[in-house]
Amino acid sequence: MKKGLFTYENGIVLLMAFTFGCLFFDRLALNFLMPYVAKDLQLNNTQIGLLAGALSLAWAFSSFFSTAWAETHNKKKLVFIAAVFTFSLCSVGSGWAVSFVTLLIARLVMGFAEGPVIPLAQNFVERESSPNRLGLNAGILQAFGSALFGSILAPVVLVQIAENMGWRNAFFVAGAPGLVLGLLAWKFVKKSTAESAEASAAQTKEKSALNIAELLQYNNIKWGIGAACCVFGWWFATLPFISNYFVNFQGMSADEMGKNMGLLGVSGLLSSVIVPGLSDKIGRKKVLLIFMVVGTFYPFAVYFLAGSAIHLPAMFFTYFMMGLLPIVAAVLPSESVPDHLKAKALGFITAIAEIVGGVMVPALAGVLSDKIDPSAFLWVAAALAFIGLFFVMKLKELAKP
User: Fold this and answer.
1) Angle, to 10 degrees, between the axis of helix 154-165 and the axis of helix 29-41?
2) Contact 86/113 with Cβ under 8 angstroms?
3) 36-45, 221-230, 373-382: which range is least confident on average?
4) Buried-exposed string 123-160: b where 16+ CB fall within 10 A, e elsewhere
5) Which of 49, 57, 16 is nearest to 30 (CA)?
6) Closest CA to 147 of 15, 313, 292, 27
């Protein structure tokens, strides 16, 4: 076991976590700025859902094909660094948007650039993780990324900038840190960390570069896809709409909305460390079952408890399902396949989960919220958490607690 604080393992985890965080700060910026953007560009819920879906679709396509190409050609470090630089340079595009169409194009370009960053970052961390720390390390990436940077700092910082300097300037803030992190990755990531694991010569001749049929032979990949779609869908069903819902239908001020989103970010931060870390101790499947049930009640807490004394505590606790994201997207696929398929497994599950959970679900939730009731997106999330239990029951426990 690797010991000490200043180890290469901890350094890789920290660098990848900050890169993950920079990426999610930019990706989630539109969600927190949506009340300003929607008013200025006159967007409806259907268009809001399509904006979230467009980025996720581009992200999904790029996360699998770019990652698969990088692993097959042993170019993972090159692709990772190029992607970090590209999404950083493109981050200002959303701030230049003057209509729904131009904003949609900006988000598509951003998604293509960001796609391979997360599966490759998780793959680098998996390569350097101690056996008893994979869940925790993957959770730290999630905690820094979608939680600390994306859900805590982003709503507070971006809303303040939008209030004082305009929403366009808020988008411009996200780009610069990524350039620095790209340089650090180029300097710090060792060749052994990013080097592709080789299959046998016979496998190389017989298998395609994508290895999709081979991946689907593994039980936890086959059923893990469904679980990941439900977890991603639960998150993305509410994420594009919740800030707008708080302001326009629950009567919160912009400041109150920012604080509520920040509180959910704290929940996401804690759950992203606690939940995967707990899975290192008691097993992946048990943790998935427990927190899938917990997440089912999150939409009920948002809707039925609004204005009550337990509204915030209930949302805070039920949002702990967010801690399942690194398990379904990184830990489960990493443990389910041999070394030469791990990066592809990460990209494959992320891609499908992004298409279903990040493209189809927000689009459906947006349409239902326009046509039926503004709260319809909440019930889509509740249904997905419940359906996810079926897929989790089909998984096999591979890691020994």
Assistant:
1) 30
2) yes
3) 36-45
4) bbbbbbbeeebbbbbbbbbbbbbbbbbbbbbbbbbbbe
5) 49
6) 27
Distances (CA, A) of 141 to 80, 231, 268: 16, 17, 12
Q: Give the separation between CA 221 and CA 337, rounded to whole angstroms.
A: 8
CATH of the domain at 346: 1.20.1250.20
For the record, the structure tokens of 119 come out as 């599966």
Examine residue 5 and state whether it is found in any structural domain, yes or no: no
Among 227, 235, 233, which Cα is nearest to 322's?
Answer: 235
The CA radius of gyration of the chain, in Å to the nearest whole number, is 20
**In the structure, what pLDDT confidence band is assigned to residue 204 with cuts at 50, 70 and 90?**
very low
Residue at 203 is within a domain:
no
Q: Classify burial at 115, counting beta carbons within 10 Å of its beta carbon; exposed 0-12, middle 13-18, buried 19 or more.
A: buried
Displacement of CA 150 from its chain's centroid (Å): 10
Handedness of CA 126, 129, 134, 140 (dihedral sign): negative
Full domain range(s) for residue 18: 10-191+209-393
Between 317 and 251, whose confidence is greater?
317
Close Cβ partners of 372 (under 8 Å, ≥ 6 residues apart): none
d(CA 369, CA 138): 34
Q: Number of structural domains, the chain?
A: 1
> What pLDDT, in 10s, does the model give residues 94-115?
788 888 888 888 888 888 888 8
CA within 13 Å, CB half, 156: 12
Structure tokens belonging to residue 287: 């943790």
Please check whether residue 113 is in contact with residue 85, taking contact to mean a CB–CB distance below 8 angstroms: no
